[in-house]
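Q: I have 299 residues here and want to know how they pack in 3D. Can you give me a structure?
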Amino acid sequence: MFRYGLKSPGSALREEMSKGVVVLPGVYDAITARIAEEAGARGLYLTGAGVTNSMLAAPDIGLVTLGEMARVASNVCGAVSVPVIADADTGFGGTMNASRAVIEYERAGLAGMHVEDQAMPKRCGHLDGKALISAEEMDAKIRMMVGARRDPSFLIIARTDARGVTGLEDAIARGRRYVAAGADCVFPEGLQSKEEFAEFRAGVSGPLLANMTEFGKTPLISVSEFEGLGYTLVIFPMTAFRVMMKAVDEAYRTLLRDGTQAGILDRMRTRQELYELIDYPAYESLDRQLAEEAERTES
């Protein structure tokens, strides 16, 4: 059935963080969020790239609006009972825009959000050609976002893309500054080795988020290794999305080639499995209950 979401999702996520490293699988809509929760996820990550790619079939260059992202976030948070954090790109504009993003993301039921120090037009964090706003401007954004939240447990996560632009030393300096400005967690994007993650950890206090995306600047590092390096949150933004694209591509090609889906039935969730996932029996039960109550009222 429909869910009301967590009363204080930020508190729920902080509680999970207090227990050790938290793996946040990337989701891009309500049904993928439900599947991840069913698989045992303690928290989720709403990927901006996944939402942009799936909604617009366009690249992750800041094309999705605050309203569109908040709507998807609301759907996701209404479908699960675990805390969700979301990508907020550059805060959808300047300092005041970032402040409003906090309000809308909190209203959507999220546990937190990350905002990056890229200049618009932004680029995927693992591509070259990025540009940064000044550390002073990002400092102001963070302070405004911290002041805008209603629930103090809502996580303000500051992402720095400095490693690929001005180098690791500047990324560490920015991370320190962002913590001083009030960020609850720092997200160093595009680090290129376990040694760099260790160096960033040594230079920046407080919780850190690691992005374990595929085919990017970062080599594959396991969750246990990240935990050993001192990282509290690990996101896998596009893992399921990339698997989905390959599976869907193969399904369409098989269907168009063979003229039947008979050869791929074993790769599908059954109708019954889908109905169990989306609580179909509960809706049917409620429908019967309402019909019976209406019949009693009429008689």
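Q: Anything worth noting?
A: The first strand starts at residue 22 and ends at 27. Strands lie at 22-27, 44-46, 84-87, 112-116, 155-160, 185-188, 209-211, 233-236.
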